[in-house]
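Appendix B, Record 12. Input sequence as logged:
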Amino acid sequence: MNSVSIRFYEELNDFLHFSKRKIEYRITFELKRTVKDLIEGEGVPHVEVDLILVNGRSVNFDYHIEDDDRISVYPEFELLDISPIYRLRPEPLRQSRFIVDANLGRLARYLRMTGFDTLFDINLNDGDIIRIADQHKKIILTRDVGILKNGKVSRGYFLRSQQPDRQLMEVIHKFDLKRQIKPFTRCIACNGKILSVKKEDIQDQLPEQIKSDFNEFFRCNQCGRVYWKGSHHQRMLEKISRLFP
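Logged structural output:
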C-alpha cells in the first residue's frame, strides 16, 4: 500500500468534502495511478487545474505518482506569471467563446447580451457539447462536474452559483472579461452578430408605433431579428452597469 500527501488551493477546494478543504491530507492507493486520475478521483475536474507540483517540481497530468509524493494542485493563475514552469493548458484564448449546457439558457442570453459568442442549444447532449467545444475552441460552461472530467475536454469551467446574474458575474470575473464587454453586439436569440440597418430596409417588420418613435435600428445577420433602443435596451444597460460598475 502506497500513500501520498496532497493539497488543493483556492477555488479547487469547492469540489472537496469540507474535511479536506485548505489542508494537506493523505491518500492511500495500491495500483499505479497518474496524478490526473488521483485528482479527478478527489472530485476536481482536470480542466480546473493549471499547475501541479510534485515534491516542488512541475509535472503534467501523465505523471505516475509514487509512494510518499507530496502533491500541490493549483487553479488557473490570473495575476501571477508562471510561464517559466510547466503549465497544463495552452496559452489563454485571445477571444473567449463559450458553449453552455442545457440548464444554462438564461446565462447564455446574458453572455450574448454583453457581447460574448455563446452557443446554446437545448437539444445538444454532453457528447455534442464536447465535440463542438473541441472543434471550435469553445469554453464549456456547466454545473455538471461529470462533463468536465471527460478526457477530451481541454477548456471548461464549473459554475459555483445557481443564479443567472451571479453566474454572469462569475464568468466575467473568472476569465477577466470586463474590458471586453460590448453590449448588444450579439443577438440574444441566436448568437448572430447585430449590425446597423437602415429604417427603410425593415419598414415591413416594424409596428406602426415603433416606426414613428425610433429612427435607429439594428438587425441580426443570422436570424434577421430587429432591435431598437427602447425601454428594454435601457433596462439591460442599467443591469450591466449595476453588475459591472
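Residues 231-243 form the longest helix (13 residues).
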